[in-house]
């Protein structure tokens, strides 16, 4: 059964719209995802929205119709509304005609099974939601297990990060923790911590990588703190042939991750 | 000599602010770059702004002071104004305290010297300014000669693209042309055209690359048109180990470019 909401001032609309802000996401333990492609990715990964918003009277794509049925079967709510109200929820002029409210899916470090994947990505104080979302997307592509967020990273469940992840926010495990917790956990088992840095002469293709390999990328402007670099089992750099001294953080992570994966499949 | 502008409604402020829009950039043949880092990159590459805007009364970084002197020596204008007006020019709440107006530096295809670099990047109908700027930044890092834009790409001289390029907009040659022109030019000399595609079984690490190698990446949502793929000397794909079927366009370009460069330095 669908429920209809027609008014902008409806309290549920206000509440859902508030999930565009981090403090409300934290308080509610929920986040937003938009668009059929991302929500289908979520569904295939086993995640259904608690609430599904769609435009009244609009013909549904078969995948959207299937999604609606599953949401209802699972006891979720389907709410139809105007395209103007949906635009307000999605914050885009051209709303993607589907918005979902999902329960928080962050995973505590203690539940991360490091041996379930050969590669893990670690982001330290990453500030740009597009970069974080792109790292998730890359992690999925390269077969990483998930993303571990250290220090004050931008929220991986922001609308911008979820969008840039293209759904990988649902297929990669996401863990937020302090550096000390991470190191304690990491050293309690096997795992190679690899940092990308400008403070090294070791070429990224000259290093031997071993699973589970934790590829750590630092803040966009500052890079990794010195103490974090000192903890790494290997510090490597990509050759720079031009004037610039660095790559975009998400790009550097991807070049590293494909190098590590390429080595692993050759050996 | 500095000139001071105090009013928001000053015609020059309006004119410079209009450069945030593509149609005015085209009309004026000028574009904006912001911030000391990017403008220093420009200066080192031999490009000075015709006009330099800075905040009145603010102490200048030595590099900014040097830039100011060079702008004056070259006959350019230095304009001091309030931080509010500078914010209006830069479109950011936290302006980077320097804004420059540069003359258009796009290069016609006939002036591109393909043998001057082992790698060239080609973007087809790329829509996201962040992706285009990131491609320029990656091109600089990997030692590419420049970026060739085919079909209806987003403007590489937009404020967003310039910012994402981190100054590589000044160190990479930038050429916009139609596909037919590009092919005619390409086939008039040596050069390997490599496309990334989902419609191939050839692994990107199984292909042999030769300089000058033109790495072509298609539109974010559609990929390359079939006819363009047919023209490629090699179509390759990166292995996808997860649920997703693609990487972010700028990320895919970077993984490819570092693979090509890595092969070239081993041989």
Please provide a brief summary of the model.
The first copy, chain A, is of the alpha/beta class and 267 residues long. Chain A is 38% helix and 21% strand.
Written overview of the protein:
The structure is a homodimer of 267-residue chains. Chain A has 267 residues and is α/β, with parallel strands linked by helices. Chain A has 2 domains: 2-103, 60s Ribosomal Protein L30, Chain: A, CATH 3.30.1330; 109-266, 3-Layer(aba) Sandwich (Alpha/beta knot), CATH 3.40.1280.10. In chain A, 38% of the residues lie in helices and 21% in strands. Chain A has 11 helices and 11 strands. The first copy, chain A, has helices spanning 11-18, 22-28, 36-44, 62-73, 83-90, 129-142, 159-165, 168-171, 179-186, 226-231, 249-266, and strands at residues 2-4, 30-34, 51-55, 77-81, 98-103, 119-124, 144-150, 173-177, 192-196, 213-217, 234-236. In chain A, strands 8-7-6-10-9-11 form a 6-stranded parallel beta sheet. In chain A, strands 1-4-3-5-2 form a 5-stranded mixed beta sheet. In chain A, β3, α4 (62-73) and β4 (77-81) form a beta-alpha-beta unit. In chain A, α6 (129-142) runs parallel beside α7 and α6 packs parallel to α11 (249-266).
């Amino acid at each position: 059964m669908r429920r209809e909401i027609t008014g902008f001032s409806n309290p549920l609309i206000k509440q859902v719209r508030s999930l565009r802000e981090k403090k409300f996401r934290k308080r509610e333990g929920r986040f937003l995802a938009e668009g059929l492609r991302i929500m289908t990715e979520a569904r295939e990964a086993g995640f259904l929205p608690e609430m599904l918003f769609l435009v009244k009277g609009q013909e549904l794509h078969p995948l959207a119709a299937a999604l609606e049925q599953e949401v209802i079967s699972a006891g979720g709510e389907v709410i139809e509304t105007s395209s103007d109200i949906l635009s307000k929820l999605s914050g885009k002029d051209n709303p993607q005609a589907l918005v979902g409210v999902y329960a928080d899916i962050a995973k505590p470090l203690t539940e991360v099974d490091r041996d379930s994947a050969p590669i893990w990505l670690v982001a330290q104080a990453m500030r740009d939601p597009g970069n974080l979302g792109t790292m998730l997307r890359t992690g999925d592509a390269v077969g990483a297990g998930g993303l571990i967020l250290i220090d004050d990273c931008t929220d991986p469940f922001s609308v911008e990060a979820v969008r840039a992840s293209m759904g990988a926010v649902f297929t990669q495990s996401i863990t937020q923790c302090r550096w000390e917790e991470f190191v304690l956990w990491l050293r309690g088992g096997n795992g190679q911590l690899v940092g990308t840095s400008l403070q090294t002469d070791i070429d990224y293709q000259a290093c031997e990588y071993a699973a589970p390999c934790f590829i750590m990328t630092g803040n966009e402007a500052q890079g990794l703190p010195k103490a974090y670099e000192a903890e790494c089992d290997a510090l490597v750099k990509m050759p720079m042939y031009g004037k610039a001294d660095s790559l975009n953080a998400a790009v550097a992570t991807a070049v590293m991750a494909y190098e590590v994966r390429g080595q692993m499949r050759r050996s």
